[in-house]
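hey can u check if this looks right to u? its 269 residues, i copy pasted from the old doc so theres a chance i mangled smth
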Amino acid sequence: MTGLVAPARVAQPLRPRGELRSGLPYWLSSFRAMLRYDWGRLRPWVGMMVVIQTLMGAGMVLMYGFFYPSITAGRALYIATGAPTLALIPLGLVMVPNGVMQDKLQGTFDYVWSLPTRRSAQMLSTFTLYTLMALPGAVLALLVATWRYGVHLSLSPILLPAVLLCAVMSVTVGYALALAISNPLVTNVIVNALIFVVLLFSPIVYPASQLPGWLYDVHRVLPFESMAQVMRAGLTTGLATDVGVSFAVLGAWTVAGCAAAAWVVGRRH
């Protein structure tokens, strides 16, 4: 479920002899097997993915700092707290779809879906691994940004669910996008256009109030501003507003991503 070729020594998640292909024990067995299988394919590339995330998050934050003639304390805090969001978006909306795209081109995609494991376990394996891989890059990007701008953070208990929800939402939407589009080349074009629009026109490192009215209304529905809002709510005090609405928006996008992926997977039976 990634675009990477499995090492020769990775054990295939075959069904043990005599095991029933139903029930919770079989599902858990499928999930563990797919975790081992997917991790074996991803492991050589984890370091590179973390580096790319860190460079995307910290690099974009540093670049945005050049746009202002002077960086006030408020601007520095706004820019720095946008770093985790900028690091999470590329992994979910770029790396996950590109991984599925490469699988389709190499024939690995059909092979994985032909394995005698539950489809839902295969999907959850992908969601779990990519979500976990998203966290180190987001943390490193935040550390670089806070060092560069010298901001002081005020962590709150809301940070953990905010980070996890943002990561899961990004991965599920990216995965659903890759599954829903049958042509890998079309997936590549859409993903590259999407990341360009998101990084330049989403209010992640600046307030949404600076956008034109119609674009502000669009971002009230899209998940990107909501990602930045819940992150800020966990990192600062008083900077983020309407956090409950932002959590609801992210939850709706996560459910939609899971439902879309499940619908596509169901059609392949």
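Residues 1-18 have pLDDT under 50 and may be disordered.
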